[in-house]
Amino acid sequence: RRDQQHYFMEVNTRVQVEHGITELITGIDSVKEQIRIAAGEKLSIKRQDKIPLKGHAMECRINAEDPAHDFIPCPGKIERFNVPGGPGIRVDTHAYAGYTVPPYYDSMIGKLMVLGRNRGEAISMMQRALEEFIIEPIKTTIPLHREIMKNPIFRRAQMYTDFIQRLLGEWTDKNTDKSAPKMLSR
User: Fold this and answer.
1) Parts of the chain with a pLDDT under 50
2) How many alpha carbons fall within 13 Å on the CB side of residue 153?
3) Catalytic residue at 61?
4) What torsion do the CA atoms of 124, 111, 116, 161 make, to the nearest 10 degrees?
5) Which of 15, 45, 122, 168 is most buried when burial is the number of CB atoms within 10 A of its CB?
6) Is the pTM of this model over 0.85?
7) How would you write the chain as a 3-class SS string?
């Protein structure tokens, strides 16, 4: 504004689900910083311009949902649970083999995050991590994320606001394998 007054449109005083991406790029544990502030301590970094930024990070939310059927929740018992790992891979989850995803709450099972030197490396790392991430027998969003990572439009960073809607619009009953959608490939 011209009068140099600043106004808040919204204030979220909780840690957002995407905080892990910020932590990967900055190396700063935002939850730890919030606890320090609550305990009356000062922030560990005094100035915004002193916050280090490195690489390219991305996140896939892994939900117990079936993308082939309007993302309907898919609760049930997880019998097989293999989490990817390695340098630059982070998985935040509460689930495990034997855990039952309840039908009453948010269907998120976890967040898979990667940190690469650049976007291309981050996409490659995410593809590998998604291949290693196994949650069975319930349906999850993992197969959809795998296809998104291979999609030429996504790889060129030319997405649009209805990317997923259009992508799923091509996922018809003619496809025999509902776990591997046919993707847009302009």
Assistant:
1) 172-176, 180-183, 185-186
2) 15
3) no
4) 70
5) 122
6) no
7) CCCCCCCCCCCCCCCCCCHHHHHHHHCCCHHHHHHHHHCCCCCCCCCHHHCCCCCEEEEEEEECEEHHHCCEECCEECCEEECCCCCCEEEEECCCCCCEECCCCCCEEEEEEEEECCHHHHHHHHHHHHHHCEEECCCCCHHHHHHHHHCHHHHCCCCCCCHHHHHHHCCCCCCCCCCCCCCCCC
* Tokens of residue 78, six digits: 């997880």
Q: What is the pLDDT of residues 92-125, one digit of tens each?
A: 999 999 999 999 988 999 999 999 999 999 999 9
What letter represents residue 18's amino acid? E
Structure tokens at 17: 């689900």
Per annotation, catalytic residue among 14, 61, 128, 155: 14
Cα separation, 58 vs 123, in Å, equals 8
